Amino acid sequence: MVVVMVIVVVVVVVVVVVVVMVIVVVMVVVMLVAVVVGNEYLIIVHDALDYGIPKYGIFENRNSLKDLAQMPQWAEEKPLRVATGFTYLGPKFMKENGLNHVSFSTADEALEAAPTMWIADAILDLVSSGTTLKENNLKEIEGGVVVLVASKRSLIQRKSALDTTHEILEILEAHLRAEGEFTVTANMRGSRAEEVAERVLSQPSLSRLQGPTISLVFCKRDGQIASDYYAIVICVPKKALYRSVQQLRVIGGSRVLVSSLTYIFYEETLRWRELLSALGLQFSLCG
């Protein structure tokens, strides 16, 4: 019994010593680099020996599901290990994306810890801000999907469910439509609205939509109401924003204001019409 205990103690000491030695080596390497960089008597002969602590290991250059599927490591005897709570959708999703050699497991605790515990190579989960992924040295790869689903029976039988879905669909579509779009407002001196509109529409970046919207700018001068300026409102994409501002300046625009758009609502939403058609319901503009 004493001998066994002594052996165990020796093994523990050896393991601790090995760990300490590794830490010391890493510290020495870091200190050596610092010394070399700051020492006029030393010179770095080779600075790319591929030593160091990898960030993502074999997944460093894998950024999409396609990249993941093309990795030669995965085989029937050595599949890609995935931790997920979506035990039905997970296998279906992976197979649809060309990943045939995959094993799935569920984690009692946070899924993000599974790769750190060496029980999974990847996780399949919902992501919000991505902060937890970064904290666990994980990265999100391209290929995930987001869909809005609803019960057909509920939509057909419950008007409240259909109305709520209509509202959500309208807001989502309007928000996606407004992504990357900006409202640009500028003041411009002119004798009449048509003359100002002609100057604005002569510029290629200012005439892409149905605008511009032109209205009088009123001010008070010598006790009287005056209107020497017109306000021009246009909608432009982000990539044409600065060019549009420049063109407004060229034709006499001043006090240019820019604000990002949150929603762009059209007369109707095509997806809403398609949804009603799929449900066998009649379309109407009032919903």
TrEMBL record:
GO biological process: L-histidine biosynthetic process
Alphabetized GO MF terms: ATP phosphoribosyltransferase activity; magnesium ion binding
One Pfam family hit: HisG_C
UniProt key word Plastid: yes
Alphabetized UniProt keyword annotations: Amino-acid biosynthesis, Chloroplast, Glycosyltransferase, Histidine biosynthesis, Plastid, Transferase, Transit peptide
Catalysed reaction, written as an equation: 1-(5-phospho-beta-D-ribosyl)-ATP + diphosphate = 5-phospho-alpha-D-ribose 1-diphosphate + ATP
Main location per the UniProt record: plastid
Histidine biosynthesis HisG C-terminal domain: residues covered: 178-262
Stretches assigned to the ATP phosphoribosyltransferase catalytic domain: 70-173
EC number in record: 2.4.2.17
Subcellular location(s) per record: Plastid, Chloroplast
InterPro entries for this protein: ATP_PRibTrfase_cat, ATP_PRibTrfase_HisG, HisG_C, N-reg_PII-like_a/b
Cofactor(s) needed by this chain: Mg(2+)
Pathway terms, separated by semicolons: Amino-acid biosynthesis; L-histidine biosynthesis; L-histidine from 5-phospho-alpha-D-ribose 1-diphosphate: step 1/9
UniProt GO cellular component terms: chloroplast
Similarity-based family: Belongs to the ATP phosphoribosyltransferase family. Long subfamily.
Cited function: Catalyzes the condensation of ATP and 5-phosphoribose 1-diphosphate to form N'-(5'-phosphoribosyl)-ATP (PR-ATP).
Cited PANTHER family: ATP PHOSPHORIBOSYLTRANSFERASE (PTHR21403:SF8), ATP PHOSPHORIBOSYLTRANSFERASE ATP-PRTASE (PTHR21403)
The protein's name in its UniProt record: ATP phosphoribosyltransferase
The organism of origin for this protein: Prunus persica
